[in-house]
Design brief:
The chain has a two-stranded antiparallel ribbon. It has two helices and two strands. It starts with a helix and ends in a 12-residue tail after the last strand. By secondary structure, the protein is an alpha+beta fold.
Length: 87
Amino acid sequence: MERLARKIDLFEVAEIKLSYCGKVKASQRPKVNSSRQVFEVFSKVWEEESIEFVEDFKRMLLSRANRVLGIVNILPPVERAFIVGIS
């Protein structure tokens, strides 16, 4: 019976709360209303010299008012760890 009680305790999960507190005022964040404006914001954070040959994936996080909260690098550049074919 004691073993069963231990298994039930494993299913209890503590509550996790995630919050975001930005240091930049909402009025100072860039606002994007078109794909052109999104491109301009992304071009400021992308490495210009490696954009054509390094696979990279970034996600732009927006508020409900289309203000940029941040840009997250989802798939980091693979230039440091790549596979070389041996012939």
